[in-house]
Design a protein that fits this description.
With 123 residues, this protein is of the alpha/beta class. It has helices at 16-27, 79-86; strands at residues 8-12, 32-34, 40-43, 54-59, 73-75, 92-99, 105-110, 116-121. The protein has a 4-stranded mixed beta sheet, covered by helices on one side. A hairpin with a 5-residue loop joins strand 6 (92-99) and strand 7. Helix 1 packs antiparallel against helix 2 (79-86). The longest helix is centred in the first third of the chain and has 12 residues, at 16-27. The radius of gyration is 14 Å and the shape is globular.
Length: 123
Amino acid sequence: MAQNPVRWFEIYVQDMERAKNFYQSVLQVKLERLNSPGMELWAFPMNMEGTGASGALVRMPGFPSGGNSVLVYFSCADCGIEAGRVAKAGGRIEKEKFSIGEYGFIALAIDTEGNMFGLHSMK
């Protein structure tokens, strides 16, 4: 493969304002509204020329949040910092920052919509 296998991700939500506030607070980013008929999308910052994947929060009738089997990991300088913001933003930590050996560190959290997500860093 000449490129990364993941190009885009979507995190389904029920309460968009609550979910936006959660991710903006934990990751310290600003989400941007995307125009898409039949659904509400708010995208994470993206660089179309950069590597890795970007994605969006999505609210669409008939598509519930939580209980999903896809886990998105957000890249961090030190995932313990973002993990420390989760509870204050209305989520909860599922597993505190821990080592995954030579591949760095991760923390697992649950957002305000019941979705589990990961935080990854090399330190």
